[in-house]
Give the backbone structure.
Amino acid sequence: MKKKKNSSATQWIRRVSQLLFFFIFIYFVWKLHFIKEEDEYLKIYNIFFDLDPLIFLLTSLSTWSLESLSYWWIITLIITILLGRVFCGWFCPFGAYHTFFSWIANSVKKKKDYQSRSIAHRTKYFIFFLFLGMSIFGTQWFGILDPFSFFYRTLTTSVFPAFQVASEDISNLIYQKDPNILGFHLTYISEPVRNFLRNYVFKMTQRPYYTEGTLLFITLLLVTGLNFIRPRFWCRYICPLGGLLGLISLKPILRLFNDESTCTNCRLCSKACPAGAQPDQRGNWLPTECFVCWNCVESCKSGSINFKFNIPGLKTIPTGKIDYPRRMVVTAMATGAVGMLGFKVQPQAKGGQPFPEFLIRPPGARSEKEFLQRCIQCGACMRACPTNGLQPTGLEAGWEGLWTPKLVPKIGYCLYNCNLCGKICPTKAIQHLPLQEKQKTKIGLATFDKGRCIPYSYGRECIVCEEHCPLSPKAIYLVEREITLRNGEVVKIKQPEVDANLCIGCGMCEWSCVFQDKAAIRVTCANESRNSNNQPILPSDNLY
């Protein structure tokens, strides 16, 4: 009975730990959109990325550099070596997310005995070695499936915006219809809730929009639905970080002990195990799969199983292991290398040449090759961007650049007095630039479409782009010229021009253009500071 009480207490401690780290993660993602440049505690928002050894390992391999990488992952490494995959069962916020939906899945259908299947468990190791092979040859793509990057990116681009859209649309619908139920107006509730969310949760009047938000939302729904096929399906079979931690936890000190003298072979522990770690099989328990969640100990009615410390030389508790043969490892790494070659045959991979022209990277972004070797597609820069201008790319950056950040000026511009994206980037794919240096860094060049620009094509005044240019002196200036109208009248019109020596490509002119469909002034990545091969207009050129 005492063991039962101890296991119940441990279960509750684990649940509190999962909830705590889950809500800390959610809070950090939410808070990041409202931080200020002078915030002294910006580094704390990267703590989950810093604790991820997968990010350190594969980023250092893809860049062959340790520059700007955190070493907090050593804590995760030590804990895993000693205690096994405790990180997955106690601290990982994405693991907590899957635990919740696995609990729902088990509640709506009869709990089954999900036997361990070594071949299926191999999948996450195959995925890890595949990404490892890609990284060794200089291509980083693991951010697509890294749990922190996946969860952060999805919250930023789809979940938070969807929550804001839903709350605002529902409150607007209630306000417009003003339903009266037995003399009580629902607006008495909906309006205070709406005002609270707007003032304290969203803190913004404009809804955020993301170009890949729908696809990323569908991806999250699919991953969530997998929990109804197997509990914690992602953690069992997909997660590359789980694969790495599984390799590290081959021989942990904390091990599961099954007392043969009292065990009744009821298999309740196997049904309760969300990892398929074979707690019912004496001497064949799988430490590489176990989340140390204590479910098996709690479920055992005879008190036959418990976690104990293995003391070499005094007490040896045997364990099993997942069989991933050398051939599988070689095949996975070779697949990664071949996949990397497939990325390199696209036009986007042509050395030094931007493709397409509207792929505008944030200020401080490294050269495209090194940028892609470091970017983990986490979306932190997009969340920090105060104007919603940074968007996840689709395939315009090639498969290698999928869901990396780009500036879309028609959605939002690069704020002149902001350098948050460089401060918050966990791998420094976007380097932190002091504000004065950032304000001089060119990410693109504005160009007029004189076939659409009102002063050129329609003979009418419009100086909106010049008024919005944040530079001093302004990169957009006005030239007064005489034009002849249809009736023969000659008038003087101020026509805007771009000074290529001054323009930094912030996109505020394109964002402010009165044309809502296609702006009469467009920003391309030409003249970007990070690419010496993409500077057709040199500062010494006399343009006008």
Notes: The chain has 22 helices and ten strands.
